[in-house]
Amino acid sequence: MMKFYVMNGSPRKNHNTAKILECAVEGIKSVLPDAQINWIHVYDLSYSGCVSCYGCKRVNGRSYGKCAKRDSISGLLENISEGDGLLIGSPVFFHGIPGQLRAFLERLLYPYLVYGKEYTSIAPKRFPAAFFYTMNATEEKMKQMNYPIKLSAMEEYTGVVFSKPEIFHCFDTCQFDDYALYKAERFSQEEKLKVKKEQFPKDCQRAAELGKKIAQKAICQNPTASESPGRI
């Protein structure tokens, strides 16, 4: 049974980011119906980011290659590194990923980075990964504000540690169900709801297709999974 970890970096469990991830999971399950899906809602967990103890870098140390800080995510970090695929969902806060998600990724990625002449990885496995971003900005605005560059740091380190991630963007999302209840005159509720009705379903379908791609990449790295019933 193949194991996929799905990380919801949003504080909301039933909104844009979570729904996009759910569609990606449907894509995985359409290829690998017996796949085990492990959801991680980072805002449900209590932890900090990297504390710069360097225990993971100490040669011959008992924590070499793994996070030395012990808290509620210690075992989870090791489980993820033994999985078969990783999906990371993130809303865009202040032109970047939320602090809670960044803190988790610091703890996940840093122990496996080797400070050689070039960055290399000592992660126990290589597996496919993907970042799913949802944002209030339009595609044009995203490009104007250089989001691809601003969001690239964790993507690059994920590529070193596990594999070059697939990147998914979902634009112009609805922040509120009723804009009249909030101070948000710069947005048109009519236009936002139109995008939600017409574009968001297409985004969900794109997410499902990317989920299928992740599953197929996982199969290529674990050929025995090709025997999974219902694989297409």
Notable features of this structure?
single chain; disordered C terminus; five-stranded parallel β-sheet; two-stranded antiparallel sheet; 232 residues; alpha/beta; 7 strands
Average pLDDT rating: 93
Spans of 5+ residues with little confidence (pLDDT < 50)?
226-232
Radius of gyration: 18 Å
Number of strands: 7
Shape category: globular
By oligomeric state, this entry counts as single chain
Query: Strand-and-helix sequence, N→C?
Result: EHEHEHEEEHHHEHH
Helix content: 25-40%
Strand order in the sheet with the most strands: 2-1-3-6-7
Q: Structural class of the helix and strand makeup? A: alpha/beta
How much of the sequence lies in strands comes to 15-25%
How far the N terminus sits from the C terminus, by CA atoms, comes to 17 Å
- By DSSP (H or I, 4+ residues per run), the number of helices equals 8
The biggest sheet amounts to:
5 strands, parallel
Structural account:
The longest helix has 22 residues. This protein is of the alpha/beta class and 232 residues long. Strands 2-1-3-6-7 form a five-stranded parallel β-sheet, sandwiched between helices. Helix 1 crosses helix 8. Helix content is 38%, strand content 16%. Strand 1, helix 1 and strand 2 form a beta-alpha-beta unit. The chain contains eight helices and seven strands. The C terminus is likely disordered.
